[in-house]
Records
---
Amino acid sequence: MRRNILYLFAAALFFFTTSCVEEKLAFTVVESPVLGLISETSAAEGMVAFTGTFYELDKSGILDQNIGIDSIPVAGLELRVESQNRALLQTIVTAADGTTLFEMPATELEGVTRLEWTGTYDGQIFRILKNL
């Protein structure tokens, strides 16, 4: 009985001394500086089209129930639309209302399973994924 308690104590001690430390994680996740809403839209025959709307989120009024989080359209944001293999498909820019249109022949997207919308905003690089 005493030997089992000793083993149990040693196992508990081992468990608590070998737990994960946050600094040792494989990678850090940083939130995107913009909110990207991407949806498929109607296109001409043989074409594929996606509309993207990009917002900066102003969280300064998050604690005030009358203000909340404000979404501000991001104008002039340059975006690279890439395949899952990081092959560049198109470079597009958002309009004054934060919207942009990605349109391409469906035949050129054969084998593509995911679109990656990448850009830089306020010096921070971001990547937004959209599965097809």
Note: The chain has a mean pLDDT of 86.
---
Amino acid sequence: MRGGDVRTEGLFSYVSCEARVPLTHPLRPIRAICDEALEVLSHEFEGLYAKVGRPSVPPEKLLRALLLQ
């Protein structure tokens, strides 16, 4: 079962990452491009996962992590 791509910023801190990262940071446009590409692929990911079972780590999160390594 495919897990949801939910961001839990408020879980550990009262200040969001968006507030901490400057608007001119070079990773901001890269993240926007990555989010657009992953949204297009969302339907493809849905077909690769079973409808029942334990939710997995969302493939979007895994691909974002690989991109930043």
Note: Residues 34 and 67 are 9 Å apart (CA to CA).
---
Amino acid sequence: MKKIFTYLTMAALAVTMLSGCDRDASEANTLSGRWTGYISTYYYDRWGLTGEDYRTTIEFVQRDNYGGTGYEVDYDINDPWGSYYYSPLEWEVRNGVIHIFYTYDRYSVEIYRYTLNSSHFSGLMDDGTRRDIEFSLDYIGSVDWARYRYGGSWRTRSVEESDSTDIVVNGESVATGAFARAIKAQQE
């Protein structure tokens, strides 16, 4: 009887562990794609701006069963081309938690309380501070990343010659406007 109980326990554990991996792979597959919507923060957000809502667009590019790379741009609702922050990212779904690492500024967040389906993604991000970062995103078809990455044709000067508040990394326009000023203030 003891052997049967041991075998049943081992089988139950194996099923539980394998189904967790399958769920992570399923979540990663659903997450893969382009999403846009709003992010709201209470207290201070990562840019030092208080209680602001801003728009965000994220693309998750799946490279394996559980994660991949991508891009994110956060921008002022009233000035999307003049005040934004753009960053490549790496992401992974592990044990039901979505981990996002922003490569330019080495910033990371965890998303562990969320709802996700093929058309909507919402929940709370945790960046290790005591503030709540709520987001609500909808799945979209395409994104013109060139406008953010390289300054786009809407600028009259090259990225390197642009406004002195702009931040450029590896030839990519990373931040402009209020986002760039907030980053520079944090660096001083």
Note: Residues 13-20, 152-163 have pLDDT under 50 and may be disordered.
